[in-house]
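Private note to self, pasted from the team thread so I don't lose it. Backbone tokens:
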């Protein structure tokens, strides 16, 4: 895996992924930024949510669950002193489908957290990570 990061101005950077996608990162105005993009640590959270969601959806589909929608709401806390690592992260999954089995959703979240999601397993070295979910029936 490769990536490239180029400084643009102030604390604004343009990141390019090895797969050819770009993202702008910037800081808050009080930190010298112009608020042109997400903060790098916000992207770490979003990347982790993407990683675990990918796993959960894949596992549920393999289990023949009729998933129609899924999103993750994330709350995190960071250390007060440098390095300001994440100390607590909570993932709340909302899974929408038809006839979804709670056991299948619990299993998918557990497998992602404990076996498949490299990002969450890495962040678990410094943070207490918790998960819960809500099931919604699709009409």
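Design output:
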């Amino acid at each position: 895996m490769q990536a490239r990061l180029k400084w643009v101005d102030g604390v604004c950077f343009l990141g390019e992924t090895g797969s050819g996608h770009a993202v702008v990162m910037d800081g808050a105005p009080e930190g010298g930024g112009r608020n042109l993009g997400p903060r790098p640590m916000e992207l770490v959270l979003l990347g982790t949510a993407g990683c675990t969601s990918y796993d959960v959806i894949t596992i549920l589909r393999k289990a023949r669950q009729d998933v129609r929608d899924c999103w993750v709401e994330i709350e995190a806390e960071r250390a007060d002193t440098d390095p300001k690592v994440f100390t607590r992260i909570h993932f709340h999954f909302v899974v929408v489908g038809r006839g979804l089995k709670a056991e299948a959703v619990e299993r998918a979240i557990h497998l992602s957290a404990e076996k498949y999601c490299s990002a969450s397993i890495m962040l678990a070295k410094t943070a207490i990570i918790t998960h819960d979910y809500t099931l919604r029936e699709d009409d």
